[in-house]
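FAQ: What does a ligand-bound record look like?

Like this one, built around adenosine monophosphate:
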Amino acid sequence: MDCIFCKIVERQAPAEIIYEDDAVIAFLDTRPMNFGHTLVIPKCHCENFLELPNNSIPNIFGIAQKVAFAVQDSLQCSGFNLVVNNGKDAGQSVFHFHVHIIPRFSTDSFRFDLNFKRYNPEEIIEIGKKIRNHI
Ligand code: AMP
Ligand code: ZN
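The answer part, i.e. the structure of the complex:
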């Protein structure tokens, strides 16, 4: 398997590492949306959010919060986006689960130009029912 993030974990590829413990590592994204854009990943390879072992989730998101505090305190950003792209159609390009922490500033000009849809009254009930049936 040729996974760039596994290579970072194994020190076979370079990275500016921010945090590391037995199970999790965080490092700077080399194509940042803003400086300080950080990725938090489990050391074990798993492709995406749905493949994460359920009992690892509190730990990885706990570390993501710790790193987010550090990013915000050190860079004095006024906010950050916490992003997980799951699957190719959702923009995932590295298939080793990762959480993006993207520092945001009032002066940055990013906009997510989304074309929001509208439900009609029956549709919202139908979609709610479909999803509930799979919980
Ligand atoms: P995604 O599109 O959600 O899969 O995000 C993958 C991210 O990994 C992108 O923002 C890339 O810039 C970043 N990335 C890819 N290769 C490396 C690398 N070797 N070191 C640090 N970040 C990387
Ligand atoms: Zn991997």
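Follow-up question: can I read anything off the structure? Yes, for example: The chain has a mean pLDDT of 96.
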